[in-house]
Amino acid sequence: MHPLITIKGIREGLLVTLGEGEWPEIQEALISQLEGQADFLRGAKLILDVQNRALNAASLGKLRDLLSDREVSIWAVLSFSPLTEQTAQTLGFATKIHQKQNEPEVSPRDLNLEDDEGILAKQTLRSGGSLVYPGHITLIGDVNPGAEIIAGGHVVVYGKIKGMVHAGSEGDETAVVCALEMSPTQLRIADKISVSPEDMGEKTPEIAFIRDGQVVAEPWKFR
């Protein structure tokens, strides 16, 4: 992670906080950070926290285009500057987050999973929904068809997986996927892909992992 850039997962997408420095330097650092994780961040929605910076339409528009070229989009721009806020609204970006009611925030917290960072989300991911995070993801809820979870580490779902889940997205073949019901449209661990058979029989909790170069699933026994 570049010292001028911090990224963390929240409900709406990835919150990117830009540190102090000249705008050209910050912009270059952000692009460099995204290019370094291109495969993982492709398709991500960003919430940019630009702090007190006063940015005009040309500056924000250029950044939007640079990110779009890398298949990353800006969803919102947060700033204490009235000029930046007005510019963001003119360009069609949100300027506030956590506006929807009855949808809990995805709060980053330490899950004590191999001492790596993770997030805990309490929600159902509906079609078109996406939860992306470079660490572990624990979801209390379902992953519906058309929704996806992409994690750099493990994925634990206390619910049904019927959409797409990708664990170990940065190449970690030790990552696992656990769910109370495992019926994904696609399941990926690192670069290995598995698709559920049509007839799954009785649905029971399962844990999926890589064994001998293939994704396999076994009963998930937990207390």
Q: What would your notes on this structure say?
A:
The structure is a single chain. This protein has helices spanning 23-36, 38-41, 57-69, 82-90, and strands spanning 5-10, 13-18, 45-49, 73-78, 107-113, 116-122, 130-133, 136-140, 148-151, 155-161, 164-167, 177-182, 186-189, 192-194, 206-211, 214-219. It has 223 residues and is an alpha/beta fold. The protein has two domains: 5-90, Alpha-Beta Plaits; 107-219, 3 Solenoid (Pectate Lyase C-like). Strands 5-6-8-10-12-15-16 form a seven-stranded mixed sheet, with no helix packed on it. A five-stranded mixed sheet has the order 7-9-11-13-14, with no helix packed on it. The radius of gyration is 19 Å and the shape is elongated. Residues 99-115 have low confidence and may be disordered.
Helix content: 10-25%
Proportion of residues in β-strands: 35-45%
> What CATH first level of the largest domain would be assigned?
Mainly Beta
Question: Mind telling me the C-alpha Rg?
Answer: 19 Å
- Which outline best applies? elongated
Number of helices: 4
User: How many strand units?
Assistant: 16
Strand order of the largest sheet: 5-6-8-10-12-15-16
CATH architecture assignment name of the largest domain:
3 Solenoid
* Count of discrete structural domains: 2
Within the CATH hierarchy, at the fold level, what is the topology of the largest domain? Pectate Lyase C-like
**Based on helices, strands and strand pairing, what is the structural class?**
alpha/beta
How far is the N terminus from the C terminus?
Answer: 36 Å
Stretches where pLDDT is under 50 for at least 5 consecutive residues are 99-115
Mean pLDDT: 82
Query: What string gives the helices and strands in order?
Result: EEHHEHEHEEEEEEEEEEEE
What composes the largest sheet?
A: 7 strands, mixed
